[in-house]
Design a protein that fits this description.
6-stranded mixed sheet, alpha/beta, 15 helices, single chain, about 40% helix, 5-stranded mixed sheet
């Protein structure tokens, strides 16, 4: 079966589409494309993400993104099924009070009906709510795929994805899926990107090659202060998003009065330091640290990871035949295939759900 996975993450770089062919438990990547978000669309998403807005703006963008997702898939080879994560505009994994009741909540936009109508194939979307309904945090969901990709009888492995947020999947040697530990470690590229855009007056959206971080100086005092935040001590399962590391967090960094170039270096060090602290606190020994996502292309982040975790062999997912940029889009293609076949694909050990569940909603 040919399945397309669509992923658009918190970095707001654009729309990633991976087309894979699945035969039983084996899959092959046929095509991968990224369609950048137009500036106006990116700004519109930011305007409705974890902020006061109008329901009309969310509704309009919901349908626009569905159309853009369909166009992105249409540029690729024809498929029989689509898995669409959608664009997260709000994610609250800790229950909040609403009308006298406590609820967790999440919201991904990108109307699946638009994709199904324009492509003429079924679409699996809205993966996170079912896990939340079962008592989980709704994230991370990729660990189900990480386990099948990287499990090893003799080596302890950690799969680290550095997108806007960084998340880790710890797979002890010889473990079953029930022993997998996975959670968000903190910011990935999100804070670095925001500071880079400020420093370059909008000319750059990200720190290409980690050059800005390498020309700045990380501030140990500020780094230590941030690492004392409750989130880093909180036991998994846990997840994070723009709610924790968006404009309010960036404003907190700016209040330090440090030059932007040094804040970029500090934010880069924070991404790696949070990963290392998380592994030492909540995981176990790591023989192989396998990095994917946009952060896999940032030598400054990789250098900090090597320094903070000298005992681990640092690799990118490319060494396992998986394009670091395509990894999460591939994962949602696989998750869609599992849902299509009515198989549970959350890991309760990663999300805290009471039991495994079939994820997503199918639009025909």
């Amino acid at each position: 079966m040919k399945v397309a996975g669509i992923m658009s993450g918190t970095s707001l770089d654009g729309i990633d589409v991976a087309v894979i062919e699945i035969r039983g438990r084996k899959w092959e990547l046929l095509e991968f494309r990224t369609t950048p978000y137009p500036r106006a669309v990116r700004e519109a998403i930011l305007a409705v993400s974890n902020t006061d807005t109008h329901t009309a703006q969310i509704a309009r963008l919901h349908f626009l993104l569905g159309a853009l997702y369909a166009e992105a898939v249409a540029r690729c080879a024809s498929v029989e099924l689509v898995g669409c994560h959608g664009q997260t505009i709000f994610h609250e994994s800790v229950a909040a009070s609403v009308a006298g009741r406590k609820v967790k909540s999440t919201l991904q936009i990108g109307e699946a009906s638009m994709i199904a109508e324009r492509l003429g194939v079924p679409v699996v979307s809205d993966f996170r709510p079912r896990d939340i309904a079962a008592g989980g945090t709704g994230a991370p969901l990729v660990p189900y795929v990480d386990y099948f990709l990287y499990r090893n009888a003799r080596r302890n492995r950690a799969a680290l994805n550095i997108g806007g947020i960084a998340n880790i999947t710890y797979i002890p040697a010889g473990s079953t899926a029930a022993n997998v530990i996975a959670f968000d470690t903190g910011p990935g590229n999100m804070v670095i990107d925001a500071l880079t855009e400020m420093h370059t007056h909008g000319r750059r959206k990200f720190d290409k090659g980690g050059k800005l971080a390498q020309s700045g100086k990380a501030n140990p005092k500020l780094l230590d202060e941030i690492l004392k935040d409750r989130f880093y001590r909180q036991l998994p399962p846990k997840s994070a998003g723009r709610e924790q590391y968006g404009k309010e967090f960036v404003a907190r960094l700016l209040q330090s009065g440090l030059p932007l170039i040094d804040l970029i270096a500090t934010a880069t060090a924070l991404t790696a330091a949070a990963v290392a602290a998380s592994i030492r606190r909540f995981c176990g020994p790591v023989d192989d640290l396998i990095v994917s996502g946009g952060g896999a292309h940032n030598p400054a982040i990789l250098a900090y990871l090597s320094a903070f975790l000298p005992e681990a062999r640092l690799q990118t997912s490319a060494e396992y035949g998986i394009d670091p940029d395509a990894k999460e889009a591939i994962a949602f293609a696989i998750l869609a295939y599992e849902s299509w076949n009515r198989r549970p694909s959350n890991l309760p050990s990663a999300t805290g759900a009471r039991h495994p569940v079939v994820l997503g909603k199918i639009t025909y």
